[in-house]
Structure formats: C-alpha cells, structure tokens
Amino acid sequence: MESRTPEWRALWLIGFAGFMTLYTFNPARGEYRATQLRKRRGSPKPGTSGRVDINLPELGQQRPDDSR
Fold this sequence. Notes:
Number of helices: 1
C-alpha cells in the first residue's frame, strides 16, 4: 500500500506566492495614498525629466486660484 504525502513543493509555491502578493501590495498601496494626497493638495505629478517649475508658490503663500 502506498501512503499519500503532501506535495511540499506546492505548499512552498503557495507560500511564496502569498509573500510576493504582500510584497507588491504594500508599495502599491503607498503609491495610491501618495497619489490621493497629491490630488487633495493640488500638487503636480512627479516627473522623470528632472526639471522643476520655478513658478511654484513658496510655503504659506496662496495660489492665484485659491480663494481661502
């Protein structure tokens, strides 16, 4: 009679897949939160060009379209 043993390779694969899911979910959640915060603040999207808009308001100044 042959005894049935669990497929350990499949269990390791399932565990690894779970780890990779968490590993990719956490940075994605951080990016989503940062995007939402930028939208609320009215900040521009980060660019890859390395150029900065020199007409950004200083801290504490109101924007021309801001009517607080």
